[in-house]
Specification:
The complex is a heterodimer of chains A (757) and B (244). With 757 residues, chain A is of the alpha+beta class. Chain A contains 13 helices and 39 strands. The two termini of chain A are 29 Å apart. Chain B has one domain. Chain B contains four helices and 15 strands. The chains are: A alpha+beta (757), B mainly beta (244).
Chain lengths: 757, 244
């Protein structure tokens, strides 16, 4: 069919032959070439932005740009960046305001208007601060400002301002309470799309509970125990008859204690009955917000259904919530008051992510940037938590830098209920403001984290960089820090990371070798021949000393049968355990919390060689035209040396750069196999590992940070420095000494000057 | 002459000053986000290192009370130097309830008085065990010192819990909980989660001297906030046109 077409268009063949001869002749006399071929691939990448907490934590706002406790000036500055980067939509992972209130919700929505005006969506989710309106008199209806939230953000309910998002869903709940709080949506075309599963775990309503509406079971049965009241935070009864157990006198107030192995009547009110007499403090109605959260276990069925890789119809899926799996500052998180909360519901959640290829859990809450691999907890045969032991499933948690006037540092490791051993640190950045651009690119996801180049922000009244420095004698300002005014922001990329659904992941500890990084795809194999993680950077976990806890052979913390920690006892010179004067054991003291080394999490991924899809008629054209040996030589020379097309699949690599260094990595040697049979004139150095820059595949070493460009025909040797690249005919590979991560492929024409098509 | 005069002046000045170890503080007691009373604490340390702590609570009457007059509860506690348990503790309410606890002959004598009766109990005394009252909130100042900061981690503290002076197991876990109107980074305070008798959970914040800063007691749902922090929070409330 193709051949027929060509024959019927012979005049085009003549024209093409003439043009080609002209081109070749030009090449003989010039190094300039109009590069043909070498297109990237047929998927159009698209991006979304992520930002976090926009709390204005001050009562004062001299600039008048931060209404209703929303740091709107910062939010708009970040949104301008999103607009400039052409994202399709922005997600904010909670704490839209510091003090909630319907006006606070509206103020945050108003601050998102520039996005809407630019055709960019804005999808928020609630954080804990969205529930605090009642604490500040900003939730006068006692509805947790949820109607105000839903009205301000109709896009969360698929009502308007959805900007191309589709397939909205939310968990079923009474009166659709969760509709628009937890929700999911899809974006993008088939094969290049993603699902966003937003899970709200914050309080949802005030409960006015009448004592007669309390669930009645054997433990709370007024008919059995007598008339019931609320007393302070307890349910109490006034014994009207002999109470089961026989220990409570008739007429006495008592409660059902749960402190023992089974519930039983108790008159122990810990002395409160003396200070707060029953007669004046009992009530028939209570009113509170506690216990109205829909924790992940209560939404797991919906979460699992949304993430199901067999039915969801999207290449990628992300789970987002305000509070993360493992806080860096806050102990409270996605499952409750600590990362150890509700372990039985944690396992299904982690499993649902692992089973469905979900790589990232996105959160905020800590006002800092922290990436870590977090492992699920482990349960014993009785389905109880095994303290200190990691479980089977792992997810990368990304705590997003905020745009707020409040900044936190990391908490000490012993304040997280023995869970920090489930966390492997990757990167951390503190006391800054920032944002993220996630790019969906077929099977690949690339994330760029940007933060202000100055950083070192200060809290609250001292935001952004402290008070003005004033000359005490003259009263003049000698250093203007303009407290509470938006500073000049210079957002700079701090790090990039990513993954591909067809790639692999490697955890490289400090001083570890990158040589373990190996991956293949179709006919192309890539591996790192040399390189070491030379990082010595640690996070800023505070140093705390205490008794050293015993660990097992696998490094897991040890606890006794009651769940209490087992400490390492001091021994004397004879090896005998040391006790104090009271005969109590003396435990070995040491550091129990300290800065932790940051690891490198290297991810790889692939895109099939788009140039391998040459049309048959095009192949025929070339074979027919270059039928004599001389022309064949020029043909091969042109195709292999000059023509900027790919001779391998495209290999992506992420995760080797240091936080704050943007893309710069340790020096490493990348090797890639390629279609070697068609190669000629390999010694010219015009074929090699290339990277895609400004629409063209260019010699990868050109983009190094420093180094000296040099071509070698032969295998890599350890003496070769940064910038050396080569072809090894024996192994049919190309290699290059690099110091950045990007997309790489073996390409021809990498050293000729190219014009954009 | 002038030197003598200066010396006398200095001595008089020093005599007029309290001991540098004396301590006083005011706490606000909050229930259901409403201020229901105060606890004023005055602690004096004598030259032998014994501490006497006098506290007074002024509490609003309950919602069902016919008489809306505030109730006054006074406590006096004497803690010998280096001890965890007071040699004497007296609780006196202006209504009808009082009790007194003292240590005599290696026993704890607990005398519980009401308008109707007086009951005396004797309990074996373990000097290594601290005391705590969940309604005399400042007692946590002394009790939390039993937590071994060198050891860290979860620690079980066997405690005489007043007013009964019964022995209960209290689990302390260092924590890092942040409340919406409370910024721990700025205040540089320590936070603990405390579980009393497997029943009552307490979130406790203390300052660098282990003095009570803020405490939320789940169960009775009572919050105790040091006055300076409370005033800061109250200011924010008032700016919203609300009162605590």
């Amino acid at each position: 069919m193709s051949k027929q077409v060509y024959k019927n268009n012979n005049k085009w063949g003549i024209l093409a032959r003439t043009m080609m001869m002209t081109t070749i002749l030009s090449l003989v006399f010039s190094s300039l070439i109009f590069a043909a071929g070498g297109g990237r691939y047929e998927v159009d990448p698209w991006s979304f932005g992520v930002m976090a907490d926009t709390q204005w934590t001050n009562s004062e706002d001299p600039e008048g740009a931060n209404p209703e406790y929303v740091s709107a000036a910062l939010a708009r500055a970040i949104e301008d960046e999103f607009i400039d980067n052409g994202v399709k939509f922005v997600i904010q992972v909670g704490d839209l305001t510091d003090r909630a209130g319907d006006d606070g919700m509206a103020a945050r929505a108003a601050a998102a208007q520039p996005l809407f005006d630019a055709g960019i969506g804005f999808f928020p989710l609630r954080g804990n601060h969205e529930t605090y309106g009642y604490l500040y008199g900003r939730d006068t209806e006692y509805v947790v400002n949820i109607p105000g939230y839903k009205a301000a953000f109709p896009q969360t309910q698929n009502l308007s301002n959805t900007f191309g998002a589709t397939n909205f869903s939310w968990p079923s709940s009474t009166d659709d309470l969760l509709k628009g709080l937890s929700y999911s949506f899809d974006y993008g075309d088939e094969g290049n799309n993603a699902r966003f599963v937003i899970v709200d775990v914050e309080a949802t309503y005030f409960k006015e509970t009448k004592i007669e509406d309390e669930p009645i079971d054997d433990d709370y049965n007024p008919e059995k125990y007598g008339e019931a009241w609320y007393y302070l935070g307890w349910i109490v009864y006034k014994a009207t008859a002999t109470v089961p157990g026989g220990s409570v006198k008739e007429g006495a107030y008592y409660r059902i204690s749960t402190s023992g192995t089974s519930p039983k009547p108790s008159t122990n009110f810990y002395g409160y009955e003396k200070t707060y007499p029953f007669e004046t403090f009992i009530a028939k109605v209570k009113y509170d917000i506690n216990g109205t959260e829909f924790w992940p276990g209560m939404q797991q069925e919906w979460i699992s259904a949304q993430l199901d890789i067999n039915t969801r119809g999207t290449e990628h899926a992300f789970v987002l919530s305000h509070r993360g799996l493992m806080g860096t500052n806050h102990a409270d998180g996605f499952f409750g008051s600590s990362p150890a909360s509700k372990p039985q519901t944690q396992i299904p959640f982690y499993k649902s992510l692992a089973d469905n290829g979900v790589r990232y859990m996105l959160s905020g809450h800590d006002h800092l940037h922290n990436r870590a691999l977090v492992t699920s907890p482990a349960l014993d045969e009785n389905n109880e938590l095994i303290k200190g032991k990691p479980g089977d499933y792992q997810i990368q948690q990304i705590i997003h830098m905020a745009g707020s006037t409040k900044f936190y540092g990391p908490g000490s490791l012993d304040s997280f209920s023995y869970t920090k051993q489930r966390e492997t640190q990757i990167s951390q950045d503190l006391y800054n403001v920032g944002y993220y651009i996630y790019t969906i690119d077929g099977p690949r996801v690339n994330v760029d984290y940007y933060a202000d180049s100055t950083g070192d922000f200060q809290d609250n009244d001292d935001y952004p960089h402290g008070q003005d420095v004033i000359d005490e004698e003259t009263g003049e300002i000698i250093e203007a820090n303009n407290p509470l005014y938006l500073p000049d922001l210079d957002f700079v990329k701090q790090e990039s990371f990513g993954y591909s659904t067809n790639g692999k992941q490697f955890l490289i500890a400090q001083n570890g070798s990158y040589k373990v990084v190996k991956d293949s795809f179709g006919g192309t194999a890539a591996k790192i021949l040399d390189g070491t993680n030379n990082s010595s950077t640690k996070d800023e976990t505070p140093t705390v000393t205490g008794s050293i806890q015993a660990v097992d052979d696998n490094g897991n913390l040890l606890f006794d049968s009651k769940g209490e920690p087992i400490y390492v006892q001091e021994v004397d010179a004879d090896g005998n355990p040391v006790v104090d004067n009271d005969g109590k054991p003396v435990y070995k003291q040491g550091i129990i919390s300290a800065p932790r080394a940051l690891n490198k999490l290297v991810n790889t991924g692939w895109i099939a060689n788009p140039d391998d899809k040459s049309t048959p008629h095009r192949k025929h054209f070339w074979n027919r035209y270059w039928k004599n040996p001389w022309n064949k030589f020029w043909n091969k020379w042109y195709k292999n040396v000059v023509k900027n097309d790919l001779k391998s699949d495209i290999f992506s690599i992420w995760g080797m750069s240091e936080i704050g260094e943007a893309d710069k990595t340790d020096n490493y040697v990348l090797s890639m196999t390629f279609d070697f049979n068609r190669m000629t004139l390999l010694g010219a150095g015009n074929i090699g590992i290339a990277t895609y820059v400004n629409g063209k595949w260019k010699n990868a070493v050109n983009e190094n940070f420093g180094g000296k460009k040099r071509f070698v025909l032969g295998p890599y040797k350890s003496k070769y420095g940064l910038g050396t690249y080569g072809i090894d005919p024996k192994t049919k590979t190309a290699w290059a000494v690099l110091n950045y991560n990007a997309d790489f492929a073996v390409a021809g024409g990498i050293n000729t000057v190219q014009f954009k098509r | 002459m002038i030197r003598k005069f200066i010396l006398i002046f200095i001595l008089l000045f020093l005599a007029s000053c309290g001991s540098p170890q004396d301590y006083s503080q005011t706490y606000i007691i909050v229930m259901n986000r409403k201020k229901i009373g105060t606890e004023v604490v005055n602690e004096k340390t004598d030259r032998n290192g014994n501490r006497t702590c006098i506290a007074e609570q002024a509490l609003d009457s309950g919602p069902n009370a016919k008489d809306k007059k505030q109730r006054i509860i006074k406590t006096k506690m004497v803690i010998p130097k280096g001890q965890l348990f007071p040699s004497s503790y007296a609780y006196d309410s202006d209504t009808d309830s009082s009790y007194e606890i003292k240590v005599e002959d290696g026993k704890i004598i607990n005398t519980n008085k009401t308008q109707e009766e007086s009951e005396v109990k004797q309990i074996p005394f373990d000097p290594g065990m601290p005391m705590l009252s969940l309604t005399s909130y400042h007692t946590i100042d002394y009790w939390i010192r039993k937590y071994d900061e060198k050891k860290r981690g979860d620690q079980n503290i066997q405690t005489y819990l007043f007013p009964s002076a019964s022995i209960v197991k209290i689990m302390v876990t260092p924590s890092n909980t942040i409340l919406p109107d409370h910024d721990n980074k700025e205040l540089k305070i320590k936070n603990y989660e405390i579980e009393v008798d497997n029943e009552i959970n307490i979130l406790l914040w203390v300052d660098q001297d282990n003095r009570l800063y803020r405490m939320f007691i789940q169960g009775p749902n009572i919050e105790v906030i040091r006055e300076d922090l409370f005033l800061k929070i109250e200011k924010d409330y008032k700016q919203q046109g609300e009162n605590l």
